[in-house]
Each structure stands twice: as C-alpha cells, then as structure tokens.
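Mods, move this if it's the wrong board.
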Amino acid sequence: MKKLVLTLPFLFLANLALASGFGLYEFSARGNAMGGAVLAGEAEPASLALNPALITELPGKQIQTGITVVTASGGVTFGGISADSKRQWWPLPNIYYTQQINERWWWGLGAMARFGLSNDYEKDWMGATANSLYHVGVTTFSVQPTVAFKATDRLALSLGAEVQYLNFTEKIHFGYGGADTDMKLDGDSTALSGILALFYNANEKVNFGASFRFRNDHSVKGPAKYSKNIPTRFVNGGDFWGDITFPAQLALGASWKPTDKLLLEFNWTNVFWSCFRAIDIYFDYAPGTGAPGLMGTHAGNSKHYQDAYRIGVGAEYTLTDAIKLRGSFIYDKSPINEEFMDVMLPVDDRYIIGTGAGFKLSENTILDISYSFLYATSLNGVDASHTIPVHYKSATSHLMGLSLRYKF
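Not the wrong board. Structure tokens:
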C-alpha cells in the first residue's frame, strides 16, 4: 500500500513537469545546421523565432516555410522496473512572413512549435496488477506578430507578442485491485507572452544579437474519462485542471566573418527553469484507486527544476554562389533535479552534432536541408518521495530539417 500511495502522485504529476520542460529549438533547417547560433549572422524570415530584430536585414517581402522531423529512443528504470519508450516520428512545422515597410520599419508574422513532448510505453509496463502511466503528449503552437525598426544605421530593435496554444493528453492503465481500465486526460490552454530583441552591427566582420522571451503561464483544463471495464468504485467523467509554466529565456549571440566565405557564430541561451518548483493537479472526482479518497481530488508534486543553459557553435562556408555548407555543435544542459526524477522524458544533458547545406535555386528561391544527431547522457537519482531509485538510460535522437524560402 505504501508503494501505491507514492506511485499514484508520481503517475499524475511528474510527466506534466517534464513535458513543459522539453524545449524545442528546431525553427528552420539553417538554424538546425548552425546549432541555433543564428542570432547575429545572416538573417532569414525564421529569425522571427530567435532574434526578430534581424528581420531589418531582409529587404522587401519574404516568406519561409519548413519542417523538422524528429525521432528518438530512450529508457528508464523506476524502482527496479525497466521500460523503453517506443520510437516515434514527430513533425515540427513552421512558417514565417516578413515585410519591409520603409527604410526604418519592418513587420513579421511567425508560427512555430516551441515546446513539446510525446512519449509512450507498453500499457502495463509496471505490471499487470499495478497502475501504469503509458502515454503523455504535449503539443504547443505559437503565433508571433512582430515589429522591428532600425534605431540607428547599426542598431535594430524589435518587439513581438506570442499567442501560444497548448494541448495536453495523458493515458493511465489501472490494474491495481483487479481493475482493468484506461483513464485518459485531455486538456488545453492558451497563454499570451512576448519577446524583446536587438541586433547590433559592430563592423563589417562582427555582429551581436540578443533576445529575451517572457515565460508562458498556462492553466490547463479538460475531461478525465475511463475507456472500458469501469469498476463500480470508479467515477467516470468530471474534469481535471492544473497549471503548466514554460520558462523565460535569455539568448545572446555573436558572429564573426574571418573571410568573405566563412561565417562563424556563437550562441548562449539561459532558460530560467528555477521558476518551476512544483505542480498541482485537481480533479472533480478522485482518480480511480482501490481505496476511495486515497489521493483525494488534489495532488501536488515538487519538481525543483534548476536553471539550464544551451551553448551552440555554428559555421557556414560559401562554397559557390549557389551552395553553402554548414556544421555545428551544441551542449544542452538538462534542468532535471536528480532528487526529483520521473519517467516521462528520460533524458539528461544532451550533445548535438549538426550539418546541412543551403541551395540557391533561383534569384528568389533558397532551399535549406539539415541533419542532426543527438546523444543524451544517463542519470541516476530518486523520485520526488526520495525513496524510489530512478535511472535514465543514455538515449539518441535524429533530426532532419527542410526549409524553403522565397523573396517576392
């Protein structure tokens, strides 16, 4: 019984925190190939996602669209029980439009995914008579209108608003006490936030860029439903609700052109995860258990996330007037606290190697492609109760990007 009491809050809450902790940075194929180090060098409409002040370097009207496809594998051991997450394919689409108004002013509109998670295990991975969370999905999509202007010939500033939609789903199999039923949570939320950015052209060889994204505060609400074989002690229907916070981010970048053909860029991003201390979930009715009221209609879980950072170094070489080659390296620090671990995103610090190319198909059309390989290190710790050991296996991921840009 003690293990059940500890496991049920873990099932309902831990995954939400990790879902919101999974940041996405795949905003364009060029950005992927440059390791996200695209805050201060060459501009593209996708600059709206990382440093919208850069769109002041784009003449006329331009549009860019693309997709990054991600596949990953990983595994976890929780209290001596091991499970591997199922390999899946996740598409991350994006589209951007920029327009020059006059010599000083520009505006743009971008749509992209900035946070997301999808993870699946076998339905009864914790045992046929246990309660097992076997699916979690978090999908976000942001729409960002932006204005930018040149304060001086060398300094550009921008301001953007972000409207972010969030959908959260979770599936739990109840096997304890002879039950054999699935519970599905499905909720959504919309949050308003913003971004500030600047771009400074120091000289012909060196540029600087910076941006600050404010945090997104979501209040998720939706139905909690059981799917089959509902025991009499279970209450079907009712709603669940809770808060999910995506943190603020500060990004700084610098670019350097040692030669006319070579561009080098460095990016540092700090993600303020320390704001994420705990999460609370509420239910109209206590989730199904062998003892009514064991959890009640409220459950809380401490997360104690830590501020994390991401460092990217990218290089771009102009091979010909029509072809550019790119490569990069990223170190992505995890925000997970090893004293408050859970199972829904079993990855720790990540190392990413990226490559790609750009092709000028015509005077108005540019095609970019990218491929990145991600390796995540293993990690040992305990769950939020500090009594159950948790181990993350090392994990890998593959990311393939494609972008198409057109100048009107």
